[in-house]
Amino acid sequence: MTKWYEPYLEVYEKPFADAPKSVIGKVRRNLQKLQSESPFVTISLIGYNEEKHLLACLWSLSEMKCKYPVEIIGVDNDSKDRTAEVFEACGVPYYTEFQHSCGFARSCGLNHARGKYHINIDSDTMYPPHYVETMIDMLEQPGVVAVSALWSYVPDKSHSKLGLAFYETARDMHLWLQSFKRPELSVRGLVFAYRTDYAQEVGIRTDIKRGEDGYLALQLKTYGRIVFVRNRKARAITGYGTVGVDGSLFNSFQVRVIKAIKGMTGLFTKKSEYKDEESNLIK
Predict the structure, then answer these.
(1) Residue 176 domain-assigned?
(2) Rounded to an integer, what distance in angstroms lies between the CA atom of residue 179 and that of residue 150?
(3) Does residue 153 sit in helix, strand or coil?
(4) Which domain of life is it from (predicted)?
(5) Distance between CA atoms of 233 and 86, rounded to whole angstroms?
């Protein structure tokens, strides 16, 4: 049986010049049908040099099944490749953010959001058809101000299916356990959605290299609950990103296990403030 993301792999990790015009045309037409003048949800995609991934991401979003009116906007973080051209070819309104960092890019998207809810989207990630609807259904529950979902990795020849399954299962379990007391540590920007007005009020940090999503979640906790969504309808699929930084999947697993053990107390205690690491500050 074909998995939902398999058609999009035709253009994933491929130069935009190699993308079939038929695919670009289909994505553009589908997105035009989705765009609402009175959006309930703003979906903002951030990208820096994501020419090889952005079209696949937009293709997945263009085939979403959603009962809520949406607007889809882009943020080009001053890319040096054809990222902006992909947005243009697909008819997606976008903004250029010249200050480089996820924080600046996400802030740009949030500041232009018109919907009641704002959904973060990473350009190297593909999303299942009911992703947006599932996330907003949860956000519509009383007292919920933010939701974070899960993700899998694109299968390839360098990673065994069994190894990936074990890695993702262990990670998912840890994030779930952590979400009860410290949901801000289980949040990841590629699968994060929240109330636009509250987020605009507290803002997104732009002075750190990583963790702007967790910091935002920490601030949003003062307004209501953050819910961890385990529904497979909201499970995205992405590239190896930070996993690849540690080398093999096994090495990455070891690094994260050691970190999890050191932070074990976080599973049982709440926290309202964290100290910045000097190495994570943008100077």
Answers:
(1) no
(2) 12
(3) strand
(4) Bacteria
(5) 27
Question: In CATH, what number is assigned to the domain containing residue 232?
Answer: 3.90.550.10
Going from the C-alpha of 24 to that of each of 2, 72, 77, 214, the distances in angstroms are: 22, 16, 22, 34
pLDDT at 283: 76
Residue 192 in any domain: the answer is yes
Q: Domain for residue 262, yes or no?
A: no
Give the number of other Cβ atoms within 10 Å of residue 17's Cβ. 8
pLDDT tens profile 36-84:
999 999 999 999 999 999 999 999 999 999 999 999 999 999 999 999 9
Residue 223 CB neighbour total at 10 angstroms: 18
Residue 247 reports pLDDT greater than 60:
no
Is 103 a domain residue?
A: yes
Domain total of the chain: 1
What span, in angstroms and rounded, lies between the C-alpha atoms of 86 and 253?
35
Supply the range of the domain harboring residue 77.
6-156+183-246
The pTM (predicted TM-score) of the whole model is 0.91
